[in-house]
Design goal:
With 469 residues, the protein is an alpha/beta fold. It is 39% helix and 16% strand. The chain is built from 14 helices and 14 strands. β5, α5 and β6 form a beta-alpha-beta unit. The longest helix has 23 residues.
């Protein structure tokens, strides 16, 4: 459904029998989220229109807050070679490095970090200000993806994660479905707009890219002599209202970024060893998180884990509630130092329950999405929302928000916590290691993200020793 999605084979389930819905691949490229006063709109390039089709094979490149429209197709319709694309990127850097201060454009993109209603007002003011602004927004929307070149090299995985998640707060167009980020040291990462797809879809695409990339045949880029194929700076027409909005956005983004802890670390062993322990890797990891929480904070957290619903057409996710009574009993037993034999039995029961709940969630037998649909329908009908949806139990947030992403290559990815005092835990499971990305708010979660990872890793080692004993 996009100009590139046909290159990927349909995604199938682990048992290679039941196909999974591939509709989300149509929203990886050429898509942008537009802010609205009450509701945002997902806009996709209309490839049946000549103008949209021509603009679709392009990337919007950001370097030092300057945004460029960069074609990716030659005059004869062929896709540009890596050398040609490298030449265009080099051209962008040259133009920006030689730009007069008076010619530099304001960081409009920072507005995509703002409150959506506030951003919608600036968005509408931009379009009303001039046709040129409206054309810039159309080019950004129709482009295949955004490419950002950052001069800052990352010192470690955690700093890489921070750069890929939010950068400096204004060198990303966060409403764009896909952003490729190139660090100053040549490493790359991605920023994804979550409303259009779930992580396994772009992860599958990224796997495909890495598995099929070809080495460039020349060390230097080749710049096109055709003016129509040259990078074009996006120039914005401003007024006082828009300028004040942008200035406010820069300050707000800096404040929000400063609130987050982010830690990435890979374990010394992965699902290869866990499977030898005759236990589900996902259940093992989820139970380790329960133990880590109980040991460090006491009690048991309301826990969310995402389950894919792509056995169904246009399915997204369902909730796996990992903190079951069985999981709580196991976590308490580990925290209280009960015997290995008792803990082992409790772990087996908790893992069995978790695996059963996971399977049921994936085939539409979960509870949360059904209840959510009923709540939304009651609001749309204009009647009073049923009392059940107003209870403290239903409105309670998730202190531990977790998600597993399956991929064949070593990657990491993450998201922010959904609770001020909780954690966001993303984990990429591979044979030789599990890469955790853990986030927490400063002044909220105690312990903070790195210490919570250490507690998870300690729990995993203790559980391994227990099952091997």
């Amino acid at each position: 459904e996009s100009s590139y999605s046909h290159l990927l084979c349909p995604f199938v389930s682990a048992c290679r029998v039941v196909p999974l819905c591939s509709r989300q691949y149509g929203y990886v490229f050429n898509v942008c989220r537009h802010p609205g006063k009450d509701t945002d709109v997902r806009v996709r390039a209309d490839l049946s229109k000549k103008q949209d089709g021509l603009e679709a094979c392009s990337t919007i490149v950001c370097y030092q807050d300057q945004w460029f429209f960069v074609p990716l197709r030659n005059e004869d319709g062929s896709i540009m070679t890596p050398e040609q694309i490298a030449g265009s990127l080099a051209k962008v850097r040259s133009v920006v490095n030689n730009m007069k201060p008076s010619d530099r454009q304001p960081p409009i993109s920072t507005c995509t970090t703002m409150d959506r209603t506030e951003w919608s007002r600036i968005f509408e003011a931009l379009k009303a200000r001039s046709n040129r602004n409206e054309e810039n927004i159309r080019l950004i929307t129709n482009s295949a993806l955004v490419t950002t070149m950052d001069d800052t090299p990352a010192q470690d995985m955690s700093q890489s994660g921070q750069l890929y998640m939010f950068g400096d707060g204004h060198s990303r167009w966060f409403d764009k479905s896909l952003t490729l980020i190139i660090n100053g040291d040549g490493r790359i990462g991605w920023n994804l707009e979550h409303s259009v797809s779930d992580a396994p879809v772009p992860a599958r695409m990224i796997d495909y890219v890495f598995e099929n990339e070809q080495p460039a045949t020349a060390a230097e880029g080749i710049s096109s002599s055709n003016p129509a194929l040259q990078p074009r700076l996006l120039v914005w027409d401003m007024d006082d209202k828009i300028t004040k909005g942008v200035d406010s956005g820069v300050k707000q983004a800096a404040a929000e970024m400063n609130k987050l802890h982010l830690h990435i670390e890979q374990t010394a062993w992965g699902k290869g060893l866990i499977k030898k322990l005759k236990i589900s890797p996902d259940a093992f990891i989820q139970m380790a998180m329960q133990v880590a929480w109980t040991r460090t904070r006491g009690g048991h957290p309301n826990t969310y884990e995402s389950a894919l619903l792509r056995y169904f057409a246009e399915g997204r996710t369902e909730t796996i509630r990992s903190c079951t009574p069985q999981a709580s009993l196991f976590a308490s037993a580990m925290a209280d130092g009960e015997s290995k034999q008792d803990c082992k039995k409790l772990l087996q029961e908790a893992a069995k329950t978790h695996s059963k709940n996971s399977r049921e969630a994936m085939v539409g037998r979960g509870a949360d999405r059904h209840l959510f649909g009923l709540m939304i329908q009651s609001r749309l009908n204009g009647g009073q929302v049923p009392e059940m949806f107003q209870t403290e139990a239903y409105q309670q947030g998730f202190e531990l928000s977790t998600s597993q992403t399956a991929c064949r290559l070593s990657m990491a990815g993450g998201f922010g916590p959904t609770s001020f005092s909780g954690y966001g835990v993303s984990y990429f499971v591979q044979e030789e290691g599990i890469t955790f990305t853990i986030t927490s708010f400063k002044g909220g979660a105690d312990p903070e993200a790195k210490a919570f990872y250490n507690a998870i890793w300690q729990a995993m080692q203790d559980m391994k020793d227990m099952l091997q004993g």
